[in-house]
Each structure stands twice: as C-alpha cells, then as structure tokens.
C-alpha cells in the first residue's frame, strides 16, 4: 500500500467525533477514453496533492466531468489530536 493511499476520502462535509483544521481545496484531474480509469487517476492525483499539503482526510469530495476530463475535488483537512 502506498503512503498516499492513507488519505481518507469522504463525501460527507464533517468528520464525526474528530477535531480538525481546514487546509484548503485540493483537486485532481485526468483524461481518458475510459471513464472508470480516469476517475481512478483523478483520485490518485487528488490524494497525492492532499498528502503534499499535510492532510489526513479530504472531506466533501465530489466529481465533475466532461466528455474528456474528470476532476475530483474536495477540502483537505488535518486531524487535530
């Protein structure tokens, strides 16, 4: 398992029973004929960017897509221990 896979992604806007600090918006984009692999690639880029800014979790994750581009985006947050 790659370290970048440790970034939790959630479509919810809050993390129950955890305090956290908002870092900011992160996104990943990908292109491709096959939408499933483009979604996977966009998630991989999103996780990589979240890891680089020090996030533990991406909340409110969403997808936007056109006929040629898939974008995954959300809010990067750091869990406060």
TrEMBL record:
One Pfam family here: YbjQ_1
SUPFAM superfamilies, sorted: YbjQ-like
Ranges annotated as spanning the membrane: none
Domain of life of the native organism: Bacteria
Family named by the database record: Belongs to the UPF0145 family.
Name this polypeptide is given: Heavy metal-binding domain-containing protein
């Amino acid at each position: 398992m790659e370290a970048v896979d440790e970034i939790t992604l959630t479509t919810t806007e809050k993390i129950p029973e955890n305090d956290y600090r908002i870092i900011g918006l992160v996104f990943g984009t990908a292109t491709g004929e096959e939408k499933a692999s483009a979604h996977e690639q966009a998630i991989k880029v999103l996780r990589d960017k979240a890891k680089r800014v020090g996030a533990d979790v991406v909340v409110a994750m969403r997808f936007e897509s056109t006929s040629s581009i898939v974008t995954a985006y959300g809010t990067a947050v750091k869990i406060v221990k």
